[in-house]
Write a structure and sequence with these properties.
alpha+beta, Four Helix Bundle (Hemerythrin (Met), subunit A), paralog of FGE (formylglycine-generating enzyme), four-stranded mixed β-sheet, three-stranded antiparallel β-sheet, 12 strands, 30% helix
């Protein structure tokens, strides 16, 4: 079992941080080296940045937090800070900025990383909350991995031949699972006050309560969603919320993103590969509004964020909340489909070793899962280390997503991790599972 971060000595912690920084950068480089410079600088969708912007932004955040703040060093490129400030320039405007070109970006990231490794060798990892247990370095690892998943989504939006390759998942699989699992009523501990790299919106740990409810054992599959399509689900406003129906009409939605119908069969474009839609895979690339409509059609609803986390963490035998559905140990390839090892979800019922004590499967990895909850802070929330990570987004139209996807790295995926997006978004690797009241 991997030693918990909080139990590592200083030398072991520095080695772990260096390894995580290197592993994460290797992924970023692979995502950007996979295509030519022309594709790096162009914008593949107005809702996404050019890949070269994401790449340089990764380096700029690393410089700001680790070189300048933790290390107290002089700036590497103070002149570019405003170019890579996500709050100053909306995504549609970024291609027109005087961005670093790909060669300049790669040089900049190498220079920053060299200084960061020197800081890591010398900086104290105690005496200040920002560096305790290597938090600032872990925050930067998580930030880069989040942008790597964003860049992976941008690859999905590219046109043209495939540029990324990975084997199809072939994990152990449980068949003939029950459709639903009963989650008992009662309290549990939600959030965390002890996870060393947990971000501010995951904190603090607090008691939360649910009534009893039924939760789908696995995420909704492509085949199940095709039944909704076949019964005219996109043509009947009965199943849609008022804003959901308005968006469906305005955007002309007729199926999940990247799907198309050919001679009565559904096909999809998956990272440049045209293939039949796999019936037993979890559905992906649907918006919150589509998920909500399907749940209504099925006579169910989307789970709340509290219900999702209870199903993922609560152990009825001990009454405690685990870090992950399977326990407290870090994910392995036997537990979940994470880290871009594959470029698609695994069939439902996969990874039985990752099931929760109550028997819910695939809560971690494969697809982000829409919940019905909006974004807000937990009782006692305090922004750290900056308001712009979470607090500035509270109270918008966002809906919470939980559990991670095949494109989410293990460093960014735990039972308490919270993600959010606008309810119209479909380019993210999001699906869902349904819930219903038990009484």
């Amino acid at each position: 079992m991997t030693m918990p971060i909080a139990e590592r000595g200083t030398a072991a912690l520095r080695d772990h941080l260096a390894a995580e920084l290197a592993r994460t950068r290797a992924r970023s480089v692979a995502l950007t080296d996979a295509i030519d410079d022309g594709e790096l600088v162009c914008q593949h969708s107005r809702i996404m940045s050019p890949l070269v912007w994401d790449f340089a932004h990764i380096g700029n955040q690393e410089e700001l937090w680790l070189v300048r703040d933790v290390g107290g060093r002089d700036p590497v490129r103070a002149d570019i800070d405003q170019l890579y400030d996500a709050f100053k320039h909306p995504r549609p405007d970024r291609p027109a900025l005087p961005l670093l070109d790909p060669a300049e970006t790669r040089r900049y990231l190498r220079e920053v990383r060299g200084k960061v490794l020197d800081v890591l060798d010398r900086a104290p990892l105690e005496g200040r909350r920002l560096v305790e247990h290597g938090f600032a370095f872990g925050m930067i690892v998580q930030h880069e991995q989040q942008h790597d998943e964003t860049m992976l989504a941008t690859h999905q939006l590219r046109t043209g031949p495939a540029a990324l390759y990975a084997p199809a998942p072939q994990p152990e699989r449980s068949l003939n699972l029950p459709d639903e699992v009963l989650i008992p009523a009662g309290e549990f501990t939600m959030g965390t006050s002890t996870e060393p790299w947990a971000l501010d919106n995951e904190r603090p740990a607090h008691r939360a309560t649910t009534s009893a409810y039924w939760l789908d054992t696995t995420p909704v599959t492509n085949l199940e969603y095709q039944r909704f399509l076949a019964e005219g689900g996109y043509d009947n406003p009965r199943w849609w919320s008022e804003p959901g129906w308005a968006h469906r009409c305005d955007a002309g939605l007729v199926a999940p993103q990247f799907w198309y119908l050919d001679n009565g069969s559904w096909w999809r474009n998956r990272f440049g590969v045209i293939e039949p839609v796999a019936p037993d895979e979890p559905l992906v690339h649907v918006s919150f509004f589509e998920a909500q409509a399907y749940a209504a059609w099925a006579g169910k609803r989307l789970p709340t964020e509290v219900e999702w986390e209870k199903a993922a963490r609560f152990d009825p035998a001990t009454g405690r909340s685990r870090r992950f559905p399977w326990g407290d140990e870090d994910p392995t390839p036997a537990h979940a489909n994470l880290g871009q090892r594959h470029l698609q979800p695994a069939p439902v019922g996969s990874y039985p070793a990752g099931a929760s004590p109550l028997g819910v499967h695939q809560l971690i990895g494969d697809v982000w899962e829409w919940t019905s909850s909006g974004l807000s802070g937990y009782p006692g929330f305090a922004p750290f280390p900056y308001r712009e990570y979470s607090e500035v987004f509270f109270g918008g139209d966002y809906r919470m997503l939980r559990g991670g996807s095949f494109g989410t790295d293990a460093a960014v995926c735990r039972g308490t991790f919270r993600n959010w997006d606008h309810p119209v978004r479909r380019q993210i690797f999001a699906g869902f599972r349904c819930a219903r009241n038990a009484d």
